[in-house]
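Subject line: Sequence and fold of a protein, written as structure tokens
Area: Proteins and the way their chains fold up in space.
Start of record: The labelled sequence and token lines come straight after this line.
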Amino acid sequence: MDQEDILRRITGMVDDEKRLRASLEAGEIDPATERARLAALERELDQCWDLLRQRRAKAEFGENPDTARARPVSEVEGYES
């Protein structure tokens, strides 16, 4: 997955988050469902942002960004930007 793919995926997840919040406000889903889906989105976003940072760091230091790999959620969860 290249940088543009990652950015598209992040944009898609942000759009999903907005739809979830709108569905909650419209009464289409319950708060527990929204929280569970948002938590899953946040974990996936953490991984995408981490992968993007890895790719950029490798490129900056002359390494091949294609060697960057998604790390486990447990490793990237809660990283500060």
Remarks:
- Residues 3-76 form one domain.
- The CA atoms of residues 23 and 31 lie 10 Å apart.
